[in-house]
Amino acid sequence: MPDIKYIFVTGGVSSSLGKGIIAASLAKLLQAQDFKVTIQKFDPYINVDPGTLNPYEHGECYVTDDGAETDLDLGHYERFLSIKTSQANNVTTGRVYQSVIEKERKGLFLGKTVQVIPHITNEIKERMQLLGNSREFDIVITEIGGTVGDIESLPYIESVRQLIYELGEDNAMVIHLTLVPFLSAAKELKTKPTQHSVKTLMESGIKADVLVCRTEFELSHELKKKLALFCNVRVEAVIQSIDVETIYDVPIKMMEEGLDKVVLNKLKLISKPPKLDHWKSFLYKYKNPKRNLSIGLVGKYVELQDSYKSILEALIHAGAMNEAEVKVVSIHSEFLDQTNSEEKLKSLDGLIVAPGFGGRGIEGKIDAITYVRENKIPFFGICFGMQMAVIEYTRNILNHKNANSTEINENTDFPVIDLMESQKGIVNKGGTMRLGTWDCKLIKGSKAAKVYGQEVVKERHRHRYEFNNEYFSEVFDSGSFKVAGVNPKTNLVEIVENQDHPWYVGVQFHPEYKSTVSDPHPLFVDFIKASIDYLSRK
Known about the structure:
Elements: E1 5-11, H1 19-31, E2 37-43, H2 55-58, E3 62-63, E4 69-70, H3 73-81, E5 90-92, H4 93-106, H5 116-128, H6 130-133, E6 139-144, H7 154-167, E7 172-179, E8 182-183, E9 188-189, H8 192-203, E10 210-215, H9 221-231, E11 238-242, H10 250-257, H11 259-266, H12 277-287, E12 291-299, H13 309-321, E13 324-332, H14 341-345, E14 350-353, H15 362-374, E15 379-382, H16 384-396, E16 403-405, E17 414-419, E18 434-442, H17 447-452, E19 456-463, E20 465-467, H18 472-476, E21 481-486, E22 493-498, E23 504-507, H19 522-537
Parallel strand pairs: 1-6, 1-7, 2-5, 2-6, 7-10, 10-11, 12-13, 12-14, 14-15, 15-23, 16-17
Antiparallel strand pairs: 3-4, 8-9, 17-20, 18-19, 18-21, 21-22, 22-23
């Protein structure tokens, strides 16, 4: 059996240069040449997972089929490659140390002093090879979070050094992403930050095989030669990553730069022209829309776009499918109420009420739902947004003015949303929500059933609260508010619809996690189609 090939992606100079996008783009190019590829992310923070991190700090928490709460880069991996990631694809320092400490407590290291080297590095190396050892992949790409030189990243860098030594140079390589800044005063691109970054990497015993240079301006051949000479790489291995219109341009740009050819040559693998017809078709539709839409996104973390990254990307996929440019209008729910809702919402062609936790900004979400319900504007409520839709309907149509979620008001006398029974005894908050993929049985004749074209679908969840089935008959047995999907085992309400509305759907799950370039999520596609129809009726 041929050796598994490993590619390590490190970063220097600055964070947020786009290691995840470069890794995903390279993986796409390799996948398009019939290689079986996966990507994993190693993050140098102590949290066991990002599930309890504030979105302002970390962006969205992405959830996999098997219920792992992971870094948002795993969303990029899935969207680019249309593959499923898992617990094994995202590892944090917290998880590594937790595992080693548990082994020490069990007595597996009896008599030995447990140290960073070799115990922590061995644990890291074992996890870096976990996906490769499954023999399901030809190539495993590993993104190392943070920047070279960070104290937190040192064990990962040392583990990479050891692995390259153990695997052999033909089976492992390093791509180093760095910054070539433009100094406006000197009107010149500067290579020194990159040189220092590569020097720091070499001091750790690792030689970069490929340099990917983030830049605002074209790198001249002379500048590439300079970088090659002083960073000890071949000229063709100095890859320019210039700012582009969309992240989906990056695979094409990397192909033009020859990144895939350089990588495959280093790994002693045969390169052939990548098959990217579908990808190019998507890009063409995205860049040549036939119409423009304004979609409102009501949430409480809208200042940071990464907080709702998967929703924004799902809207891009659905927009391209409908040949529409989707302009997302971010609306902070905390600053929305009955006095200004018309002013802020009347120009929209559709509205999404985003997921979230806690009581801040909920009345703004409810007021937004009231406005779009009354004015027949397409509405899509996701997770917490679906719960707010239930509360809005119960308050304003069924006249239970005190209806609420026990998450917001523990003493409400009409708890139409309540803590899930399985959650009531839980004390520890990390990794204990209802997570991962669960079945949803669609009700015949519902909009959701028509959209999916299936009887049972699998969707990803991340929540503690649910519709309180004690109020099922009161909410759903009269009027236009109906259940469109339930979990067949627990009878958990998964989807609600308002039949007295052109397009009004609330879902307890997170459909945005499953939307990819090659397979846009059907609910988002139909929501955008409904928004186009609404626009045409204005």
